[in-house]
Amino acid sequence: MEKVSAISMKKKKISTSSLVKVSLLSAISFVLMFVEMPIPGLFPAFLKIDISDIPAVIAGLSMGPFAGFVVEVIKNFLHGITVTTTGGVGELANIVVGSSFVVTMSMIYRKNKSLKGLIISLFTATISMVVIGSLVNYFFLLPFYGQLMGMDAILGMGKAVNPNINDLLSFVIWFIAPFNLIKGILLSLMSIPFYKKLEKLISK
């Protein structure tokens, strides 16, 4: 009985510790959503790089894919009930696209916890984000914005940057896919040093 009780207490302690870590990382991730950087000359102004996925990456690497996914959900939920301008649609898309990176990366890394495994997981996660981000924008997000703003207005913003833009598909090919590729590469490059510094602290 004492042994069972000790195991139960240990599991409860681990669960509470994980909850605290996920909550803290979610709060940091939410704050980082306000740190955005446009890439003028390459993409329309509304496409901005942010680093709010890094805490989710750290959660996924240290505690598993579910923890990373929860961080993505909480940060977007907080954003959705405070400052959203899309009625939650943008936040939902952000969960899907961000989670495609975080979950893919952490699932692969947990099977091979080495530098090679980390590199492979980040590379695969970047490709996953490019593919899923393109599909979500083509079938869901851009059509939604098209109803609000007018598809011609959105395509016009793209055409002002790149004359090759003439329809939704070309917009996704020339803007959405390269944007998510750049974002995935930046996330990968920034996550490695962050994770290495925080790995021992989070794993305690």
Could you please describe the fold and organization of this structure?
This protein has 204 residues and is mostly helical. The chain has a single domain, classed as Arp2/3 complex 21 kDa subunit ARPC3, CATH 1.10.1760. The chain contains 7 helices and 2 strands; from the N terminus they run αββαααααα. The protein has helices at residues 2-32, 54-63, 65-80, 89-109, 115-149, 151-161, 168-203; strands spanning 36-38, 48-50. It has a two-stranded antiparallel ribbon with strand order 1-2. Helix 2 runs antiparallel to helix 3. The two termini are 27 Å apart. Mean pLDDT is 87; it is low at 2-14.
List the helices and strands and how they pair.
Layout: H1 2-32, E1 36-38, E2 48-50, H2 54-63, H3 65-80, H4 89-109, H5 115-149, H6 151-161, H7 168-203
Antiparallel strand pairs: 1-2
Helix pairs in contact: 1-2, 1-3, 2-3, 2-4, 2-7, 3-4, 4-5, 5-6, 5-7
How much of the sequence is in beta strands? under 5%
Oligomer: single chain
Number of E strands = 2
Radius of gyration: 19 Å
- Secondary structure tally, helices: 7
The 3D shape can be described as globular
Estimate percent helicity. over 70%
Low-confidence sequence ranges: 2-14
What number of structural domains do the residues give? 1
Output the strand order for the largest sheet.
1-2
Under the CATH scheme, the architecture is Orthogonal Bundle
